[in-house]
Design brief:
mainly alpha, 41% helix, 4FE4S_WBL, protein-disulfide reductase [NAD(P)H] activity, metal ion binding
Length: 83
């Protein structure tokens, strides 16, 4: 699907179909404040699309949840180091 910006969303997001988290309870990836992220991160470690997931989260400034094995705070630190 091409969005209003002329971007092929289906191609960009095709990695999500292969993501292990798609077969896991989504609540594990969006814990309550102070909740454990351990289970979600365990899933990410074994996922073949972890890099694509993290790249997507960084490019789209995802502010909530575990993406590519990193929390929002960890992604923010990673972005600061890259600048």
């Amino acid at each position: 699907m091409i969005d209003g910006d002329g971007v092929d969303d289906e191609g960009e997001l095709s990695w999500q179909e292969r993501a292990l988290c798609a077969q896991t309870d989504p609540e594990a990836f969006f814990p309550e404040k102070g909740g454990s992220t351990r289970e979600a991160k365990k899933v990410c470690v074994g996922c073949t699309v972890q890099a694509e997931c993290l790249e997507y989260a960084l490019a789209h400034d995802e502010r909530f949840g575990i993406w590519g094995g990193l929390s929002e705070r960890e992604r923010r630190k990673l972005k600061k180091r890259a600048v």
